[in-house]
Specification:
Keywords: Oxidoreductase. It comes from Micromonospora eburnea. This protein has a single domain (about 5-185, about 215-240), classed as 3-Layer(aba) Sandwich (Rossmann fold). The chain has a seven-stranded parallel sheet, sandwiched between helices. The termini are far apart. The protein is built from eight helices and seven strands. The protein is of the alpha/beta class.
Amino acid sequence: MNDAQRRVVVVTGAGTGIGRATARAFSADGAHVLAVGRRTGPLAETAAGHPLITPLAADVTAADAPGRLVDAALDRYGRLDVLINNAGIAGDAALAEFDEAAARRQLDTNLLAPIRLAHAALTALAETRGVIVNVTTSIGQRAWPGSAVYAAGKAALDSLTRSWAVELAPQGIRVVSVAPGAIDTPIGEHLGRSPEQLAAVRRWQLARTPLGRIGRPEDVAWAIRQLCDPAAGFVTGVVLPVDGGAVVG
């Protein structure tokens, strides 16, 4: 495959977890991948041994980030085929402990940044009849006491997926969501949880996952990759849980 035939994929939150696995999955499939994240060290680890992955350090909430990411893809590769809105932050807070600044940080990263990025990428994606993938959460379809702002932001992104799928269909752009359940990622450590707290969360998750195991980032990356495959060209507006049956269990 020559460079002109390779698809170009932008993955946000690509430094760890689902984003890293997704970037590597597309690279293994022969795509050029622009791996976006805040920290250069983890991005370098994502790209190590994968010559088709290019790291780009950027904060997706920055005002210039949408244009910068799209321009980077177009300047380097001349096209953009897939935008994967994976970057996200979580937070624990009951309503009685509401912190507006913390809520705004979550919604800015988890909801507004994907809107801005999708808007900036529209022209490029229309030219390739591309795909937008929003990585949300299966818990957004159920109650999640204590993390309601996180769940609500992700549920809103699922709603945008459905609306955008209809709105952008005349341009040939498909829009899908992948909604992970309990996945083995560093999100708990990023929240500052102790090993004991992490173990308790894992026990709770396992008890509510019918398949009886914690998912791997590669499980989610596989689903994203399949939905972006040209063979899935008649699939749009779907919200696909990858959660071991947690939503239906």
